[in-house]
Amino acid sequence: MRLLQFSTSHYCRKVRLALGYKKIPYEVENLTPGLHILRIKPLTGLTTTPVLLPEEAGQPEAIGDSTQILRFLETYRPEPPLIPPPPLAAEAAMLEDWLDESIGTATRFVYYHFRAGEGKSIDPSPISQLVIQVVRRQYGITPASVALAEQRLRLALAVLWERWHSHPFLVGNSLTVADIAAAALLSPLALVGSYRQDYPWLFDRIREVHSECSEPLPPGL
Ligand SMILES: N[C@@H](CCC(=O)N[C@@H](CS)C(=O)NCC(=O)O)C(=O)O
């Protein structure tokens, strides 16, 4: 099994967590942003990483999109499950989708804004700052859109706190796609001091999920 990824992408981290939880051996192929399209588009028709290549007879050639990849992994290796039985399956899927589509994006806005300003010293090299500027332009990351993203994260973290502070899992009684999505998609905030200070419980939980999935911790933790 081969994972085509950007090493720093939080969506790729989500897939690595799932692969680790299910103890599926895999290799990674790190792609260069920009050039990645040449490798990925012919395989999935999409331009985004992660892409999983099962490289096994009888399996699809390529699967794009982290949510689709986690669905595939669940049928490929059902144990231990990451999707709970109904009716909890729908709740886990809904949380995963919200975390992917809304919260993962909000994290990206806050993270790249931070890396271009207060967090510039993390890597002030011209190449890193160029990549950050390209990403900011690509996604329309401006002070106004960052303020909206911060507001969205405040609400999301209140929702996650309600579930996580009294119980280790967002849905049901074991780890699900919802916990994996939250742990991966919020992980870039570990480098942002204000989030580390205001939400210590979040980073404790991110550490625990990484340990359960045998995945190295994200930068900052
Ligand atoms: N919904 C997608 C989002 C993936 C995504 O946004 N990937 C980014 C990296 S974090 C990417 O590959 N961007 C490159 C591009 O859009 O060309 C998923 O869950 O896989």
TrEMBL record:
Domain of life: Bacteria
Classification via Gene3D superfamilies: 1.20.1050.10, Glutaredoxin (3.40.30.10)
Positions of the GST N-terminal domain: 1-81
An annotated Gene Ontology molecular function: transferase activity
Pfam families: GST_C, GST_N_3
Alphabetical keyword list: Transferase
Name of this chain's protein: Glutathione S-transferase
Annotated source species: Planktothricoides sp. SpSt-374
